[in-house]
Design a protein that fits this description.
Layout (H helix, E strand, L loop, with lengths): L1 H18 L5 H18 L4 H35 L3 H5 L8 H7 L4 E3 L7 E3 L8
Antiparallel strand pairs: 1-2
């Protein structure tokens, strides 16, 4: 019975995380606690078993809610991350100010013979000094 209650609360928490804000957990956890305690009393469990089931149910609700929030943010990110064809057509080319930076970006670092795995910054000497 404990595993079934925990799985039900986990799925319920995922569903709540998809559509509701965090304050929905207060009444839902209260109802889950009352239900877990009532089920434990009805099955004549001892106090420690009832406390374990109540803690497991509340924890499953909270973890499910966090999974639901993560799923919701992941779905929204994936949905809006793809640029539409219209936005690709209206994208402006780089301005004249940005072009020198893009052109010189590859020349900012150089490789030295002894440490081929590491890149070292190029230090330019100022002609004013």
């Amino acid at each position: 019975m404990t595993i079934l209650l925990v799985v039900i609360c986990l799925v319920a928490g995922i569903a709540l995380g998809q559509w509701f804000k965090v304050l929905i957990l207060v009444p839902v956890m209260s109802l889950a606690l009352v239900g877990a305690i009532a089920a434990g009393i009805a099955r004549a469990y001892n106090v420690w078993s009832i406390a374990f089931v109540a803690i497991a149910v509340v924890t499953a609700l909270q973890i499910g809610y966090l999974i639901g929030i993560w799923l919701r943010s992941f779905i929204v990110t994936v949905r809006f991350a793809r640029p539409s064809p219209a936005s690709e057509e209206t994208r402006r080319p780089p301005t004249a100010v940005a072009q020198p930076f893009v052109r010189d970006l590859a020349g900012v670092t150089e490789h030295h013979g002894e440490d081929e795995d590491q890149e070292h910054p190029i230090i330019y000497q100022s002609s004013l000094a």
